């Protein structure tokens, strides 16, 4: 089955700096890579996703890059703000499967220091 | 829409007791999922359903059972609770036209 590894487990940045979180996956059949943000006491919420037919996707201050050859993808947050502090999870899935199962990474606790 | 709702929010069980975690969604999503989240371990899929009457095992199904008699409801049953089932449980749903999963607020379960 799929295995997703995520680094780092914790990340502290100064407000206004950039943050980068990296994930690697093992199953070459995976072709859908979402990122979820989990605030304290809440369920995860999708912030951005990318499919294997593109190498980069941006949405305002967040972007995701994908390298299918190396089997890794990254989340980039620019101009970080205190409200970006949360746990971020990457995930991988093979679109076309009957259940659309997601395999999650272990999470990154991001702290944005004012 | 209320989205995905879960009850209870918190529960303490004694070893060997049983309980049902409730999950309801009002978005007419056909896909529904149950995850458990242990500290530092991410989310692990317990069971999933692709529609009413259809369920299947995920990565960590042992000690749990599910049913899906309606589109809206997807309860998770714990039989003979064990300390290893102490975790936060999340229910999620997904529409047929998108891959985004919508999560409920979670149930924090402690087994002592």
What's the order of the H and E elements of chain A? EEEEEEEEEEE
Low-confidence stretches of chain A: none
**Rg result of chain B:** 13 Å
H-E string of chain B: EEEEEEEEEEE
Distance between the termini of chain A: 41 Å
The overall strand count of chain B is: 11
Q: What general outline of chain B do the C-alpha atoms trace?
A: globular
Architecture overview:
The complex is a heterodimer of chains A (114) and B (112). With 114 residues, chain A is mainly beta. Chain A has no helices and eleven strands. In chain A, the strands form two sheets. In chain A, strands 2, 4, 5, 9, 10 and 11 form a six-stranded mixed sheet that branches. A five-stranded antiparallel sheet of chain A has the order 1-3-8-7-6, with no helix packed on it. In chain A, strand 6 and strand 7 (62-67) form a beta hairpin. Chain B has strands spanning 4-7, 10-13, 19-25, 31-37, 43-51, 54-57, 64-66, 76-78, 87-94, 102-103, 107-111. Chain B has 112 residues and is mainly beta. In chain B, 0% of the residues lie in helices and 50% in strands. The model of chain B has no long low-confidence stretch (mean pLDDT 95). Chains A and B meet through strand 5 and strand 10 of A and strand 5 and strand 9 of B.
């Amino acid at each position: 089955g799929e295995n997703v590894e995520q680094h780092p487990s914790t990340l502290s940045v100064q407000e206004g700096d950039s943050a980068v979180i990296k994930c690697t996956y093992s199953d070459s059949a995976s072709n859908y890579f979402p990122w979820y943000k989990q605030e304290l006491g809440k369920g995860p919420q999708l912030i951005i996703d990318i499919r294997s037919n593109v190498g980069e996707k941006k949405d305002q201050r967040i972007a995701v890059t994908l390298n299918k050859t190396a089997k890794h993808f990254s989340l980039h947050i620019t101009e970080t703000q205190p409200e970006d502090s949360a746990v971020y999870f990457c995930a991988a899935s093979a679109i076309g499967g009957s259940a659309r199962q997601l395999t999650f990474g272990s999470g990154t606790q991001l702290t944005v220091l004012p | 829409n209320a989205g995905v709702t879960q009850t209870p929010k918190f529960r303490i069980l004694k070893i060997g007791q049983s309980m049902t975690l409730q999950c309801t969604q009002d978005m007419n999503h056909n896909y529904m999922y149950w995850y458990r989240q242990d500290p530092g371990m991410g989310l692990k899929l317990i069971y999933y359903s692709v529609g009413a009457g259809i369920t299947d095992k995920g990565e960590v199904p042992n000690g749990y059972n599910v049913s899906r008699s309606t589109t809206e409801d997807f309860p998770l049953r714990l039989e003979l609770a064990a300390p290893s089932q102490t975790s936060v449980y999340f229910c999620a749903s997904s529409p047929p036209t998108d891959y985004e999963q919508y999560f409920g607020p979670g149930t924090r379960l402690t087994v002592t």
